[in-house]
Amino acid sequence: MSFLTPDAQFRFGNAPTITGFEAIGAAVEGFFAAIASCRHQLLRTWNGPEAVACEGVVTYTRHDGSTVTVPFANVFELRGAKITAYRIYIDNSPLFSAAA
């Protein structure tokens, strides 16, 4: 949370955009409670003066120990050294599907 501006906006996948520390913190906490762990592998990054983007794959570990790996892309809009908009482009529906 220390990387965000107080009025930061956050969107995860196709979920609605949420705004502010408290709402973002609650959403992130809820998501992490739904999984056992996750591991990201960055494949590429792009840096600019007002935005940063990255592409990679994330491997989620479910509470039952099974894993699922999906691609993602993140976009961070910056205000100074802080993130003012954080967008995660991902289809994580396999995470919540029955384990294969």
Describe the structure.
By secondary structure, the protein is mainly beta. The protein has one domain: Nuclear Transport Factor 2, Chain: A (Roll). Helices cover 13% and strands 55% of the residues. It contains one helix and six strands; from the N terminus they run ββαββββ. Strands 2-1-6-5-4-3 form a six-stranded mixed β-sheet, with helices on one face. The longest helix is centred in the first third of the chain and has 13 residues. The radius of gyration is 14 Å and the shape is globular. It starts with a strand and ends in a 10-residue tail after the last strand.
Secondary structure: elements and pairs:
Blueprint: E1 4-12, E2 18-19, H1 21-33, E3 37-47, E4 51-61, E5 67-79, E6 82-90
Parallel strand pairs: 1-6
Antiparallel strand pairs: 1-2, 3-4, 4-5, 5-6
List low-pLDDT spans.
none
User: What is the percent of helical residues?
Assistant: 10-25%
Strand order of the largest sheet: 2-1-6-5-4-3
String of helices and strands: EEHEEEE
Assembly type of the shown chains?
Answer: single chain
Question: What fraction of residues sit in β-strands?
Answer: over 45%
CATH hierarchy, class: Alpha Beta
Alpha-carbon Rg, integer: 14 Å
Structural class: mainly beta
Number of domains: 1
CATH topology name, in short, is: Nuclear Transport Factor 2, Chain: A
Counting DSSP H or I runs of 4 or more residues, the number of helices is 1
Task: Please report the distance between the alpha carbons of the first and last residues.
Answer: 34 Å
Question: What spatial form do the alpha-carbon principal axes imply?
Answer: globular
pLDDT averaged residue by residue: 94
The largest β sheet comes out as:
6 strands, mixed
